[in-house]
Amino acid sequence: MDPRLIDIASFDYDLPSDRIAAHPAHPRDHSRLLIYREGQLHHRPFYELPEELGSGVQLCVNDSRVIPARLLFEKSTGGRIEVFCLEPDPRYPEPSLALNCRGGVYWRCLIGGASKWKKGTSLQLLLPDSEKQEYLTAHLLEKGETDFQILFEWPEAIGSFGEVLERAGRIPLPPYIKRAPQEADQTDYQTTYAQQNGSVAAPTAGLHFTDNVLNALKQINIEPLPVTLHVGAGTFKPVTADRLENHAMHGEWIHIQRSLLSKLLQHQGKRVVVGTTTLRTLESIYWLGNRLCQTEHASLDLLTQWEPYETHDPVSVPAAIEALMKKMDNNGIDSLWARTELLIAPGYQIRMADGIITNFHQPRSTLLLLISAFIGDDWRKVYSYAMENDFRFLSYGDSSLLWRS
Question: Taking a C-beta distance cutoff of 8 angstroms, is the pair 67, 169 a contact?
Fold first, then answer.
């Protein structure tokens, strides 16, 4: 199947608003887990996941941490302008450099009430817990096709931009959660194993894990293997084009570490990924390695959405991983950053995972297309079962463990 010709209307389904979870289960591991294997379906509590996985599985998780990306500025007239920090300006070769900037940084943002903020003017936000009158200042520089370029400035002694966001920002909830953010969201909308700052949306498949579940996994010799993809707001972007060929996939940053590659290469058993972002990371790693096998000095800056579908005679998974490791060794580095626009849709061959733990996704979304690529047309059977058995959907909803045939 050529994914460009996919009619997105065939990936629609009715999702009543009352099935969209506004709050997570408490405790979070008391959510429900739907299991799909060889066409068969059943469900159990998420905290019983270790029994379902068994020993010998390599479990990969996305350790990206959600940054408090929503900033509320007040105009001199008293009106409020909300600035949503999407991602660093392209001038920074990796997101961590921008988050570590002190005194000033350029960022791509969405603006609520943009018509009330004129280009070339500035807004200020009084930083909480300031001993002096310390402000974060935002200068509106340019309007892009879908966002705005903003220069943020603050007293350098306060710390990095990441530290400024921790003081002044708020956790961004998905647009389909129709309520104001609450204090509990600061922890609820964050995985227990989050480490690397950079996401503006949570890798929500991981929200179900607790220390109890992780300890139980450790008892059967499953130690989660972290990968890093910084989730962008584009993850919520529906496919509005009739055919997939007219959809532009959003790009996201991935961090590839040599230690990760070594562990992927050494593992001989089944591999389960936690979330669509983890799968996209591992599959992107494969394609970047494949590119090196085709052209030794190829650039690794960006993986475009259609490259996998246009590549002839792809290499084996071990060959691709070894090519990336050789590249790092030759350059004397132990990690690299890249952007991926990888679009996994029906017609794509999954190479890096046997199972996926994931929540239930929006109709007409690229995430639903990924699930279809993973288990085929049985995605409809899975979603019908979830509806009939009162599963909760989307970011704060229930979970599933889907095995490839």
Answer: yes
What confidence tens digit (pLDDT) does each residue in 341-399 have? 999 999 999 999 999 999 999 999 999 999 999 999 999 999 999 999 999 999 999 99
Structure tokens belonging to residue 295: 């052209």
Residue 400, helix vs strand vs coil: strand
Angle between helices 276-294 and 258-266 (to 10 degrees): 90
pLDDT tens, position by position, 100-153: 999 999 999 999 887 888 888 899 999 987 677 889 999 999 988 889 999 999
> Hey, what domains does the chain have and what are their CATH numbers?
3-65+188-403 (3.40.1780.10), 69-168 (no CATH)
CA–CA gap between residue 281 and residue 228 (Å, rounded): 7
Model confidence, pTM: 0.95
Tell me the three state secondary structure of residue 233. helix
Q: How far apart are CA 353 and CA 220, in angstroms?
A: 20
Return the beta strands (E) in 231-375 as ranges.
Answer: 252-257, 271-274, 302-303, 335-340, 355-359
Pairwise CA distance, residues 214 & 228, whole Å = 19
Task: Check: CB of residue 399 under 8 Å from CB of residue 31.
Answer: yes
**Axis crossing angle, helix 276-294 with helix 366-375, rounded to the nearest 10:** 70
